[in-house]
Specification:
The complex is a heterodimer of chains A (173) and B (160). Chain A has 173 residues and is α+β, with helices and mostly antiparallel strands. Helices cover 24% and strands 23% of the residues of chain A. In chain A, strand 4 and strand 5 form a beta hairpin. Chain A is elongated. A three-stranded parallel sheet of chain B has the order 1-2-3. The radius of gyration of chain B is 18 Å and the shape is elongated. The termini of chain B are far apart. Chains A and B meet through loops of A and loops of B.
C-alpha cells in the first residue's frame, strides 16, 4: 500500500522519534505513537496536503488490565479526499493524566474524549468539558473497566426468593 | 333488542355505580405513547390493522401523560431513564395503571447489569406483567384484557 508507506515516511521526516512501532493486520495499519509526540503527529496528519486526515471518526480506549501500562487509546482517522483510513495508538500510564486533547485539531474530539472518560475513566489533558455523557450525572466509577462489577442483581430462584424479595426496592403509590 | 326493551317509557335505568364507573374506565383506557425499546414495535403491531387494539376502546395513544391513564412500559429502562419514567407516572392523573411489557420491564430480562433497572416495579407500582422477549401482540392484548378484568373488579371503597 503506497499511502500507508507515505504516512510513515512523512511522519519520520518531520518528527523522527514519534513512531514506536508499525503494525499491519489484515490490511489495516496501526501506528504506535509516543504519547508526548501525539499532538504534533496529529497536527501534521491533518495539515499536510498530501495526507489530509480531516476526519477523526472515533476515539476508543482499551483496558489491558494485567498489563502495564494498563490503558491504550486508539484514534481512528479518515481522509475524505484520499479515502484512506489510519489508526494511531498511544499507551496511557496514568489514567488521570491521559493524552493531550485533540479538540483544537478536530473539534469532535471533545465529545469522543468525554465518552472515553465517562465509560473508561481516562481523562484528557486540556479537555474543557469532562462530564458524564451516557451515564447519570451522579454515577460513581467507570463501568467499561475490567475491574468494574458487571452483574447487578442476584438471580431470584425458589430457594432464595424471599431473601432477594426483601432487599428489592418498592415504590410508593 | 337489549336494554331499551326493559326501560319502558321512563328513560331511567338503575345500576350499581361501581359497575358503571368501572365499565367506563375499562372500555376507554387511553395509553401513554411511550416506547423504550423493541417491545414498542410489538406495541405498534398490536395497535395496527392486524390486531386492532381499538376494538377495546384503546385506539388513542396520548403523547401527553396528563391525558392518559395507562402506562405501558415497553422495553428496558436504563438507570438514566428511571427518573423520567417516574416523573411521567407522577404526571398522569389518577386513576392510573401500569403494564410492564416484556421481560426487561418486568425483571431486567437478559440485562442483569449495572445499566438497567431490574424491573420497573422498583420505580412505579405495576398492575400487570406481560412475559415474552418481546411479547407477541396477542400477549399484550391478553395483558390488557387482564387489566380490564382487574379494573372491573375494583370496589367503591378502594377508590377513595
Amino acid at each position: 500500500m503506497d499511502r500507508d508507506q507515505l504516512v510513515v515516511d512523512k511522519i519520520k521526516e518531520s518528527i523522527s522519534d514519534a513512531i514506536e512501532e508499525v503494525l499491519d493486520f489484515r490490511g489495516e495499519r496501526t501506528l504506535f505513537i509516543k504519547p508526548n509526540r501525539l499532538k504534533k503527529v496529529c497536527q501534521l496528519l491533518r495539515d499536510d496536503e498530501a495526507l489530509a486526515y480531516n476526519f477523526l471518526s472515533d476515539i476508543c480506549a482499551d483496558d489491558l488490565l494485567p498489563d502495564y501500562p494498563r490503558f491504550a487509546i486508539n484514534y481512528h482517522l479518515y481522509s475524505l479526499s484520499n479515502k484512506h483510513r489510519l489508526r494511531l495508538r498511544v499507551m496511557v500510564e496514568y489514567p488521570d493524566k491521559g493524552p493531550a486533547t485533540m479538540a483544537d485539531i478536530w473539534p469532535i474530539a471533545t465529545w469522543l474524549e468525554m465518552e472515553v472518560w465517562d465509560l473508561m475513566g481516562v481523562s484528557f489533558r486540556g479537555n474543557k468539558s469532562q462530564r458524564r455523557l451516557f451515564l447519570p450525572e451522579d454515577w460513581q466509577g467507570h463501568p467499561l473497566r475490567k475491574d468494574y462489577p458487571l452483574g447487578y442483581e442476584e438471580v431470584q430462584f425458589s430457594f432464595n426468593w424471599e431473601e432477594i424479595g426483601a432487599r428489592k426496592p418498592r415504590p410508593e403509590e | 333488542m337489549g336494554i331499551e326493551q326493559k326501560l319502558g317509557n321512563m328513560g331511567i335505568v338503575t345500576y350499581r355505580l361501581e359497575d358503571v364507573v368501572n365499565w367506563g374506565r375499562s372500555n376507554a383506557m387511553w395509553p401513554l405513547l411511550f416506547g423504550l425499546a423493541c417491545c414498542a414495535i410489538e406495541m405498534m403491531g398490536a395497535q395496527a390493522a392486524n390486531y386492532d387494539l381499538s376494538r377495546f376502546g384503546m385506539e388513542l395513544n396520548r403523547p401527553s401523560p396528563r391525558q392518559s391513564d395507562l402506562m405501558i412500559v415497553a422495553g428496558r429502562v436504563s438507570r438514566k431513564m428511571a427518573p423520567v419514567v417516574r416523573r411521567l407516572y407522577g404526571q398522569m392523573p389518577s386513576p392510573k395503571w401500569v403494564i410492564a411489557m416484556g421481560d426487561c420491564a418486568s425483571c431486567g430480562g437478559v440485562f442483569n447489569n449495572y445499566a438497567i433497572v431490574q424491573g420497573v416495579d422498583e420505580i412505579v407500582p405495576v398492575d400487570v406483567y406481560v412475559s415474552g422477549c418481546p411479547p407477541r401482540p396477542e400477549a399484550l392484548i391478553d395483558g390488557i384484557m387482564t387489566l380490564h378484568e382487574k379494573v372491573r373488579g375494583e370496589s367503591l371503597k378502594d377508590w377513595a
